[in-house]
Amino acid sequence: MENESHEHLFFQCSYANIVWLTINRKAGLFWPSTTWVDLIHWSSSHRWKKNSERHLIARLILAAVVYYIWLERNNRIFNNTYKSAANLSEEIFQLLRLHISNLSLKYPLSEVIKVRWNLNEDLNAERARGLVGRQPSKLCWFSVFYWASSPVHLGSHS
Q1: Distance (Å, rounded) from C-alpha 26 to C-alpha 94?
Q2: Pick the residue with more confidence: 105 or 72?
Q3: Dihedrals phi, psi of 106, to nearest 5 degrees
Q4: Which among 29, 37, 88, 113 is least surrounded, fewest beta carbons within 10 Å?
Q5: Strand, helix or coil at 156?
Q6: Is 93 helix (H, G, I), strand (E, B) or coil?
Q7: Backbone CA torsion sign across 21, 52, 70, 132
Q8: What gap in Å lies between CA 43 and CA 36, rounded to an integer?
Q9: How many Cα atoms are found within 13 Å in the side-chain-facing hemisphere of 22?
Q10: What percent of the chain has pLDDT over 90?
Q11: DSSP alpha helix (H) spans, the chain
């Protein structure tokens, strides 16, 4: 059994590393190698950049990946269910895609973002036909940042 920490669970664990690499590759973002505390500080700072779509999407990615890795950890421990890193990464990407497509912004998303996330008329048609689900709960994203900013002592896992 390894001693669990934020650093290990969200960044150093090989499973989490695959999820981060997959999401970042698809999103065209590259997180610097940093600590948990520095990443949380970054996500809550840079006030002058908070209105940029790139910063917004980066914060959404941070929240979603952390939340879903935590959820996967709990499912493995308490429900004895497992998802591959590839399946979890695709699920996160599609949820982020849906969330980004539903954002109410003061400005339109750039063409680069629309292409990267495949946000085009096809998505609107899928939504109209009911092929795309609902927008993820805003409470979900907020609760991740609230949880992430509080000190937590994690148990151990295998």
Answers
A1: 11
A2: 72
A3: -80, -10
A4: 37
A5: strand
A6: helix
A7: negative
A8: 11
A9: 18
A10: 28
A11: 6-7, 14-27, 36-44, 53-74, 85-101, 111-116, 121-128, 138-148
CA-CA distances (angstroms) from residue 60 to 1, 81, 95, 138, 152? 31, 25, 10, 11, 21
pTM of structure: 0.73
What type of residue sits at position 9?
L
Q: Who has greater pLDDT, 53 or 95?
A: 95
For residue 147 the two structure tokens come to 């949880």
Q: Where are the domains of the chain?
A: 2-157
What are the tens digits of pLDDT across the range 22-50?
Answer: 999 999 887 766 777 877 777 676 554 55
97: which strand partners? Answer: none
Torsion angle of C-alpha atoms 4, 11, 41, 60, degrees rounded to 10: -120
- Structural tokens at position 136: 């993820």
Structure tokens given for 123:
């998505």
